[in-house]
């Protein structure tokens, strides 16, 4: 694995200074997802306000890719509508499946494009997707609680 490409400054910055890494007590849904192949774990809380992602908070342990990816996700998705969040999530998942052939849409994915290099390493893709799968799961659960 080419660490130079993977562990870019933006990833390390999110790993060292994770965003929204403090579980809020006010949430609509809480999920716990693990990635056994690497030992990554996260607990993620989502609160919706209608169709708006009002808050995403989390706690977790694991490799820098998994933890940085969740941190990046919170910066990207908080304040977005569920439709926008889905568009962004789908774009990120597509990027992770690109086997290193795509750079990602920086206008849409912002800091998440720093993870593009991960798509060349199949064993690490689950690390990068852990938080995104957790968000998808939690947002579906949160939505199902609305009338
Ligand atoms: Zn990992």
Automatic annotation (TrEMBL):
**BP GO terms, sorted:** iron-sulfur cluster assembly
Extract the InterPro entries matched here.
Answer: NIF_FeS_clus_asmbl_NifU_N
What SUPFAM superfamilies is this protein classified in?
SufE/NifU
What one GO molecular function would you report for this record?
A: iron ion binding
Q: Where is the NIF system FeS cluster assembly NifU N-terminal domain?
A: 7-127
UniProt xrefs under Pfam families? NifU_N (PF01592)
What is the protein's name according to its record?
A: Unannotated protein
Taxonomic source organism: freshwater metagenome
């Amino acid at each position: 694995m080419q660490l130079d490409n993977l562990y870019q400054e933006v990833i390390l910055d999110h790993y060292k200074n994770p965003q929204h890494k403090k579980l809020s007590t006010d949430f609509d849904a809480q999920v716990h997802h693990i990635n056994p192949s690497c030992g990554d774990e996260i607990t993620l809380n989502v609160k919706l306000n209608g169709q708006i992602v009002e808050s995403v908070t989390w706690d977790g342990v694991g490799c820098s890719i998994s933890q940085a990816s969740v941190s990046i996700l919170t910066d990207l998705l908080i304040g977005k509508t569920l439709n926008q969040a889905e568009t962004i999530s789908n774009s990120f998942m597509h990027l992770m499946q690109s086997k290193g052939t795509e750079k990602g849409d920086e206008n849409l994915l912002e800091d998440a494009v720093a993870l593009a290099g991960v798509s060349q390493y199949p064993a690490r893709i689950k690390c990068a997707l852990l938080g995104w799968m957790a968000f998808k799961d939690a947002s579906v659960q949160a939505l199902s609680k609305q009338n």
